[in-house]
Amino acid sequence: MSELTLTAVWSPPLKSFSARLAVGLHVVLGADTDGTASLIELCAGVRAPRRGAVALDGEHPSSSPRLRRRIASLLPIEDLSGSGDVQAWLEAVAQLRGAPAQRRLELSPVEITLTRPLAGLSSAERRRLALAVALNEPEAPLVALHEPLAAAGPLSREAVLARLAERAARAVVLVTTASVEDARQLGGTVYVLERGVLVRQHGHPWPSALTPGLGARLWIDTDSPRELVAALASSPDVREARYVSERIELQGDDLERLALAVSQAAVTAGVHVRRLQSEAPDLEAVHGASAGLAHAAYRAAQQQRPSGPRALPTSPSTKSPSGGAAP
Amino acid sequence: MNPSFRHGLMEGRRALGGAWLATASGIVLLGIGLAGLMEAQAIGGADSARRTELRLLQGATFGLMLPLLTFCLSSRVGSDLSTLLGSGWPRYGADRRVFAVGRLGFPLLAACAIAALGAVLALGLSIASSDPSLALPLGLTTGIGAVVLIAALGSASYVAGFAVAQLLGGALGRALFLVGDWLLGAGTGVTALPWPRAHLRALLGGDAVLGMSALQATGCLLALTLTLTLLYALKVPR
């Protein structure tokens, strides 16, 4: 079984990044500026770490053509080399990888004609083509993809999810994304990358894990909102229920329990729920939660000290008469 | 042909671009042409005609235009580590070392062709502007083969030298190689040994480094090119 090891990797913006990723689906949540783009480039072997090591089963992608041949990757920017058409490029890639030349894009619809010149493809089409090539690699021990669902386009999104789930059964699948919604769709183990450092790791990308304390929000479309709200009012998991723009907005602490409360209330009130929609937090909220958790951990550590917490100067009004900060 | 080398060659051609190459060729040939016209005014006797021919070949073509052309070619193609690491074909399994050497192939061929054209032009200009009975050291028929060979050797050594310099020191390294070649390559002592300019000058009838013969200078230039290419390949991760 393959294992991807990143040992104290320094490669801006990644700072002493360490991780051991076994076979399965791993989703790293973060923006390009947090280091997600660099992480994929390191795994694809198109970037060498300034310090530290990236290894897949002991081999380094940046210095092993044999390994790179087997890695399936999707980079943030796909500058596909070649001057011919798409078909010629695919055949050249297949030749380098030692794959049969007749292997074609099975991931339909990629909406790219094989006779189109490579130079004429837009950056989104180049990424879509690279994604198709990456997902067509059947024996890749490592699949490293940057924003695959954004690259897939709306039509083939489901196909990408299915293919990733299939690959995750026998390969290390590393996906980086800045979208919590995409992370939720992808599933797998979620890591939060912030300013080059892995700050958190969770078994699932639900709000209780990513944005603890911020609660969860659900939107419900129903024909009988009054009856449903009345039934939900007695539920202890519902913190707030509002009727806004012909939809019910529910707030609670946990998304799963909130959804369960809705289903129970719908059954009790005999109401038909047309649509249940959750609102994914944005990356700023996730980073904010990380900051909140770090602050809470700091406060807890301060309170556990024998001498008690040390007061910090909070405002100019707390200054002592001598001009220094209040103790 | 090795697929990695072939992809490198094509990538070098793509990075260079036809329009850029045509412009560079035009500037080089125009520069040599202008130098030839200026030098032609100074031709009086056999000695001055010989000096003019040597100045055009040693100075204008191989001393000024070839180093500047290969400097610009190297800058245009870019052989720094991040460019090589991020290249598309090695990502799909091409051997990066072979690819990197192949990537130098097209600039080398282009520099060689332009330098040879420039040298032939310089030769033609010097013969055309002097008395036919003077019998210059490099006649048009006997000289063409020699200058093409010298152009090939010179281009190869400069392209390899600039590639190593860029890989080790980026744009500054490339600039330092150019300055080092101009300053140290002008001598005839041990310090002139690793610079292409010194050996090219010797091959064109100028002062030889450490009193070497033309054959030894050719060997030195070949060894220098091979060493620099090998160093370049070894510095690139596979």
Describe what this molecule looks like in 3D.
The complex is a heterodimer of chains A (327) and B (238). Chain A has helices at residues 36-44, 65-68, 86-97, 123-135, 148-152, 157-167, 180-186, 207-210, 225-232, 255-269, 283-304; strands spanning 3-11, 14-22, 24-29, 51-56, 72-74, 142-146, 172-177, 189-194, 197-202, 216-222, 238-244, 247-252, 273-278. Chain A is of the alpha/beta class. The longest helix of chain A is centred in the last third of the chain and has 22 residues, at 283-304. Mean pLDDT of chain A is 82; it is low at 315-327. Chain B is mostly helical and 238 residues long. Chain B contains nine helices and no strands. Chain B has helices spanning 3-16, 18-40, 46-77, 81-85, 88-91, 96-128, 140-184, 196-203, 214-235. In chain B, helix 3 (46-77) packs across helix 7. The model of chain B has no long low-confidence stretch (mean pLDDT 87). Classes of the chains: A alpha/beta (327), B mainly alpha (238). The interface between A and B is medium-sized, with 27 and 22 residues.
**Mean pLDDT value of chain A:** 82
Which band does the percent of strand residues of chain B land in?
A: under 5%
Portion of residues in beta strands of chain A equals 25-35%
Q: Uncertain runs of chain A with pLDDT below 50, 5 residues or more?
A: 315-327
In angstroms, what is the radius of gyration of chain A? Answer: 25 Å
Helix content of chain A: 25-40%
User: Major sheet of chain A, described briefly?
Assistant: 6 strands, mixed
Major sheet of chain A: order of its strands? Answer: 5-6-7-3-8-9
Tell me the quaternary state: heterodimer
Strand segment count of chain B: 0
Overall mean pLDDT of chain B: 87
End-to-end Cα distance of chain A: 58 Å
Q: Give the helices and strands of chain A as they follow along the chain.
A: EEEHEHEHHEHHEHEEHEHEEHEH
